[in-house]
Specification:
The protein is an alpha/beta fold. The protein has helices at about 30-50, 60-65, 70-85, 115-130, 155-180, 200-210, 215-220, 230-235, 240-245, 270-280, 305-310, 315-320, 360-370, 405-420; strands at about 15-20, 55-60, 85-90, 140-145, 185, 220-225, 250-255, 260-265, 290-295, 300-305, 340-345, 355, 355-360, 385. The strands form 2 sheets. The chain has an 8-stranded parallel barrel, surrounded by 6 helices. The chain has a 6-stranded antiparallel sheet with strand order 10-9-11-8-13-12.
Length: about 425
């Protein structure tokens, strides 16, 4: 089966490519990237299936990507990957800079797709992925959903971003015509960004990438990176997310298999809720942005960062509201009665329970069941599944019971076993 034919039928458990994303490792230059692969990826490959190649989703920050412009460096890196049975099946092109600096937060969305810098970096990744992939393999590169959504983007900004993406699509079309290699860009909706839902993605394609002259080409090379955690935080059901894409003829370039933190307040007593807030404070850390979706009888609300939401629920407020209810008024704590929170904090996918809280592991299972079904045959033509638990380093220490290599191994095992069960 060629890369062009792939995805015309239902994907079976053995047709998925299951790997993990190396953005969990710090280091922005090529030497650090290779050292991390030696320390973590090789032991994972040996533990999972030592006779086969382990798919890895490479994160190459801009300094590392620039080093590989040297042809000799690129050949050495390709040979080293092959020697150690590592298959770079996909790239994570979302973080262009240092993803492990002390404070990342909104910096991860820079540079945006408005800029030439983002376009040039992505084209560089295309060249490297083509050079590193074995013949006949389809490749994918995830990228940010244009940029952070605040302040609201103008139509001129959206047009400029679309122009740059169309330039990438033309580049990829020429590459496939010249070499037979198909590589797709996978735009990754994320809470709070310009594109944070399936509907946003559909609208962007409809308004900015649907010129009849290029629409078919754009949909072949510009796809969606479906991060399961992100959809869960937005309280989008997996069925609705996939249906929305399918109805508009959009493809999934890869699925980032990830789980969010979930708090089901209606299952907790008042005392347990106070304990839950205290437990949750451990996840309000300074490096990454932890957007939080709140679903209640009032509807859906997205908070930009977990610390902002937790500030609404302090010990002083609990004390002040301890007698609330006597006069029929509701305080903040009582409004949790029918509320659920989902936090953009990537936790190990093999864990359904995280300390005193839950994960959205069930959303992963729902997603994969649907993609395995005949109704969605061909929606993900690459078959790329990438475990992305990048927040491992900032998970509270007492919840990190294993070495990172062991944790990654457990996640990949869990995913492979679940697929086999289907």
């Amino acid at each position: 089966m060629t890369s062009q034919d792939r995805g015309l039928g239902t994907i079976g458990a053995r047709d998925w490519k299951v790997g993990y994303c190396t953005n969990v490792h710090p280091g922005i230059d090529l030497r650090a990237a290779q050292a991390n692969l030696s320390r973590y990826a090789i032991p994972v490959q040996q533990a999972i299936e030592p006779t086969e190649k382990l798919p890895v989703g490479l994160w190459l920050a801009e300094p590392a990507a620039r080093t590989l412009r040297d042809g000799n460096e690129l050949v050495r890196f390709r040979d080293w990957l092959n020697e150690h049975s590592l298959l770079p099946f996909t790239f994570n092109g979302f973080p262009q800079g240092d993803f492990h600096q002390p404070v990342v937060k909104h910096r991860v969305y820079l540079p945006t797709w408005e800029t030439r810098e983002r376009l040039d970096y992505t084209l560089l990744l295309v060249d490297h992925l083509h050079a590193l992939l074995p013949e006949g393999e389809i490749g994918s590169i995830s990228t940010l959903p244009l940029g952070w959504g605040t302040p609201h983007w103008t139509s001129e900004q959206l047009h400029q971003a679309a122009t740059h993406l169309e330039e990438v699509a033309e580049y990829l079309s020429n590459l496939e015509q010249r070499t037979g290699r198909r590589i797709v860009i996978a735009i990754e909706p994320e809470p709070g960004c310009v594109l944070d839902t399936a509907s946003d993605m559909v609208q962007f394609f409809s308004e900015h990438l649907s010129n009849p002259k290029n629409a078919e080409r754009n949909r072949r090379y510009l796809t969606v990176c479906h991060d399961v955690c992100h959809a869960a935080v937005m309280f989008e059901s997996q069925h609705d997310f996939l249906d929305r894409l399918k109805s508009e003829g959009l493809l999934i370039g890869k699925v980032q298999v990830s789980a969010a933190l979930e708090i089901r307040w209606n299952e907790l007593s008042r005392e347990q809720r106070y304990s839950g807030i205290r437990f949750l404070r451990q996840f309000a850390e300074d490096r990454y942005l932890h957007q939080t979706g709140v679903h209640s009888k009032l509807g859906f609300e997205l908070w930009e960062d977990l610390p902002h939401l937790l500030a609404e629920f302090t010990s002083a407020q609990l004390e002040a509201e301890k007698d609330v209810g006597i006069d029929g008024n509701e305080g903040k704590w009582d409004r949790l009665d029918d509320s659920s929170w989902r936090v953009h904090f990537h936790v190990p996918i093999c864990e359904a329970v995280i300390g005193e809280l839950y994960s959205t592991q069930a959303e992963i299972k729902n997603c994969l069941r649907l993609l395995q079904s005949p109704d969605y045959a061909g929606l993900c033509p690459t078959g790329h599944l990438e475990v992305e638990t990048y927040a491992w380093s900032v998970i509270p220490a007492e919840l990190r019971q294993n070495d990172l290599a062991v944790s990654i191994t457990n996640e990949v095992y869990w995913l492979r076993e679940f697929l086999a069960s289907l």
